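Hi there,

I know you've been waiting on this one. I reran it after we fixed the sequence typo, so this is the corrected version. Both the input and the resulting structure follow.
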Amino acid sequence: MKGSRVRKIMDDMSMTASGFAEKLGYTRQGVVQWRTGRNRVPDDVSLWLVALEVWLAAHPYPVRRVREDAVADVKPAPIDFDDDL
């Protein structure tokens, strides 16, 4: 996932790097490095952000503001690469 996509998600949710990092369980500096493209977004976070992008696209702004509390405590689930699909 490119930094521009991370930046767009943060902008769509009106979140700072600190707030975004806190929700994801990462450091502010880590989020800043993803956003600027200095470091790669971890796979588990990438998958979660893609799902979040789909959700944001499907919900108009007024509904999204009400629903942010509903997803506020959602953390990315770890990916088990040893699990057979």
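Quick highlight: The mean pLDDT is 77.

Best,
R. S.
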